[in-house]
Amino acid sequence: MASVLLIEDDASVREGLELALRRQAHTVHTAESGELGLEKLRVFQPDIVVLDLMLPGIDGFETCRRIRSAGEVPIIMLTARSDDFDIVAGLEAGADDYVTKPIEPRVLDARIRAVLRRAASEKPANDDDTGERHGHLVIDRAGLVVTKNGEPVSLTPTELKLLLELSRTPGRVYSRQQILSAVWDHDYLGDSRLVDACVQRLRAKIEDVPAKPEHVQTVRGFGYRFGRS
Question: Which of 209, 227, 225, 191 is nearest to 91 (CA)?
Answer without folding.
Answer: 191
